[in-house]
């Protein structure tokens, strides 16, 4: 009787060292980090390279959410707190998000050479189609703040069929008048670039109080290695042309105008609201939100954005919390463009939009 010996290969299992992650979990964490930071792209346009960050993947038959930031900010400092907000995740999981940084404004951007010809506001708007074509986005929901709101408005006037909706925060669709130019010249003699931009971003109350948010952004702007680029963007914005919006020639898509109570551009947004198609426009004036409501009141703005998206036929089952609890609505009088007396409905912090949306002939004004 013979005994056959079989050779058995034994694989040595090395125990994980303290603090060492399992390779599978490590890959999952790496993927999550990549998702949080987004996928960055540099896209060639007729007016130079533009930095774009993508979060998520395109959804079939759904528009992309495209953001454009204000002067003195980039997509992270302008929209980071809003898009990281917990309730906002219900929206972002249903749409791909595309953050556009104006040329030279992205984090870590090198300073342009002295004498660089920065794109005009019209040219910045002309760069947007190159971005949409690069990612094969057929339609968008635009979210812009200040200068970014102007750029997306200009783009929408030129390419109305590609825009399903706009959220415009602190938008000023008018060119600077002579009084504005005189004030700008005067402040140039007495104020630094950082101080002028802070006055553009924040309310006087915030500046006087020296809030933590103001101090943080003051430091970010004053110490930015690309401060020269910021100055070029600032000059371009102050040289903007009038968009010539009125009831007969206005933005064709649904629009939500947003401004903080006592914000620097409160009057400009109110004037813009008076020029818009009242059947397509909602006006959200946010109390206690300062100049940048997307940073100070992300909860209120997220919920308003959910209603806005639902009005376009998306996310019908989205969870609502604050606004949907209320059962009271207050009516206020307003005058239409032709001077006739009309009724416009103002939803208070506790109004029920479901009971009022179908009966709004005029612009909806939501105060919260």
Compose a concise summary of this entry:
By secondary structure, this protein is α/β, with parallel strands linked by helices. It is built from 14 helices and 11 strands.
How would you describe this protein?
With about 375 residues, the chain is an alpha/beta fold. It contains 14 helices and eleven strands. It has an eleven-stranded mixed β-sheet, with helices on both faces. β1 and β2 form a beta hairpin. α4 crosses α5 and α7 runs antiparallel to α9. The longest helix has 15 residues. It starts with about 20 loop residues before the first helix and ends with a strand.
**What's the arrangement of strands in the largest beta sheet?**
1-2-4-3-5-6-7-8-11-10-9
Mean pLDDT score: 81
Estimate the helix proportion, in percent. Answer: 25-40%
Order of helices and strands: HEEEHHEHEHEHHHHHEHEHHEEHE
Count of alpha and pi helical runs:
14
Radius of gyration, CA atoms, in whole angstroms = 24 Å
Our measurement of the CA-to-CA distance between the termini, rounded to an integer number of angstroms, reads 92 Å
* SSE-based structural type: alpha/beta
Number of strands: 11
Q: Summarize the main sheet.
A: 11 strands, mixed
Please state roughly what percent of the residues sit in beta strands, choosing from under 5%, 5-15%, 15-25%, 25-35%, 35-45% or over 45%: 15-25%
| Oligomeric category | single chain
Instruction: Give the low-pLDDT segments.
Output: 1-6, 8-12, 25-35, 324-364
Q: How would the global form be characterised?
A: globular
């Amino acid at each position: 009787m013979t005994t056959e010996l079989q050779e058995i290969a034994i694989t040595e299992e090395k125990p994980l060292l303290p603090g060492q992650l399992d390779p599978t979990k490590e890959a999952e964490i790496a993927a999550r980090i990549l998702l949080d930071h987004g996928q960055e792209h540099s896209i060639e346009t007729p007016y130079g390279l533009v930095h774009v960050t993508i979060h998520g993947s395109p959804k079939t038959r759904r528009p992309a959410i495209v953001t454009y930031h204000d002067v003195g900010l980039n997509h992270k400092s302008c929209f980071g707190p809003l898009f990281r907000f917990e309730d906002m995740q219900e929206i972002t999981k249903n749409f791909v998000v595309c953050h556009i940084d104006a040329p030279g404004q992205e984090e870590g951007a090198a300073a342009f050479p002295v004498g660089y010809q920065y794109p005009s506001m019209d040219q910045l708007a002309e760069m947007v189609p190159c971005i949409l074509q690069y990612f094969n986005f057929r339609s968008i929901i635009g979210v812009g703040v200040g200068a970014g709101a102007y750029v997306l408005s200009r783009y929408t006037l030129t390419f109305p069929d590609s825009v399903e909706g706009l959220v415009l925060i602190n938008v000023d669709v008018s060119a600077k008048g002579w009084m504005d130019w005189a004030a700008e010249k005067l402040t140039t003699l007495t104020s630094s670039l950082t101080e002028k931009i802070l006055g553009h971003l924040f309310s006087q109350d915030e500046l006087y109080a020296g809030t933590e948010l103001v101090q943080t952004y003051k430091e970010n702007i004053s110490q930015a290695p690309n401060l020269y680029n910021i100055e070029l963007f600032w000059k371009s914005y102050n040289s903007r042309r009038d968009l010539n919006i009125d009831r007969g020639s206005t933005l064709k898509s649904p629009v939500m105008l947003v401004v903080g109570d006592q914000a620097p551009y409160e009057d400009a947004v109110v004037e813009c609201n008076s020029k818009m198609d009242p059947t397509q426009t909602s006006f959200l004036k946010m109390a206690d939100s300062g100049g940048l409501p997307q940073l100070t009141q992300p909860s209120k703005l997220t919920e308003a954005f959910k209603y806005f998206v639902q009005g376009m036929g998306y996310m019908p089952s989205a969870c609502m919390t604050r606004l949907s609890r209320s059962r009271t609505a207050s009516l206020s009088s307003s005058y239409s463009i032709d001077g006739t007396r009309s009724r416009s409905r103002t939803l208070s912090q506790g109004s029920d939009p479901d009971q009022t949306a179908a009966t709004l002939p005029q612009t909806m004004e939501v105060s919260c």
